[in-house]
Amino acid sequence: MIENCTENDILPCSVNFRLGKVFKMKTSGVVDPPKNMPTPQEAELPYVIEPGEYLLASTIEKMNQTKTKYAAIILPRSRTFRIGLSIQSGIVQPEYKGEIIVGIQNISGHKIRLRRGMDLVHLCFFDVKSDMLPIHKGYQYGRVI
């Protein structure tokens, strides 16, 4: 179900996911979804995120929920917000396959060095007891868009 996960990342109520890649968001003018979306451009790690800067990030770990009925909520690690990083995230739907993609914003007044493999978020899983609706055709399956 989780690829690239280490035994140390499994906690009693959640699983830690680590930073894999970061993407700067390049825009050309006004963002006007879905016509004019920012283009992600991978940045080299380690990366120093400036105060106020916003990035997308993907995790080292990947989900592969082909025959399970689990959903998950993505939550920031406590050390993430203690250093001044805000994580924008959501829900991982049952049957999701791919990396976890989150938004990261530096809300502190200081620069923060991001490194590959740093603890970023943890996922809390929930067993889905009822029948599931099919995944919408526009679902991104872990792609950075």
Task: Give the CA-CA distance, first to last residue.
Answer: 24 Å
Helix/strand structural class: mainly beta
Main sheet summary: 9 strands, antiparallel
What low-confidence regions span 5 or more consecutive residues with pLDDT below 50?
none
**Domains, number:** 1
Number of helical stretches of at least 4 residues: 1
Helix content: under 10%
CATH class: Mainly Beta
Averaging pLDDT over every residue, what do you get? 87
Reported CATH architecture: Distorted Sandwich
Name the overall outline. globular
Q: Output the helix-strand order.
A: EEEEEEHEEEEE
CATH homologous superfamily identity: Deoxyuridine triphosphatase (dUTPase)
Task: Fill in the CATH topology.
Answer: Deoxyuridine 5'-Triphosphate Nucleotidohydrolase, Chain A
Radius of gyration: 16 Å
How are the elements arranged and paired?
Blueprint: E1 2-3, E2 15-26, E3 39-43, E4 47-49, E5 54-64, E6 70-76, H1 78-82, E7 85-88, E8 91-92, E9 97-106, E10 112-114, E11 119-127
Antiparallel strand pairs: 1-5, 2-3, 2-5, 2-11, 4-10, 5-9, 6-8, 6-11, 7-9
Characteristics:
nine-stranded antiparallel beta sheet, 145 residues, 47% strand, 1 helix, Deoxyuridine 5'-Triphosphate Nucleotidohydrolase, Chain A, globular, single chain, mainly beta, two-stranded antiparallel ribbon
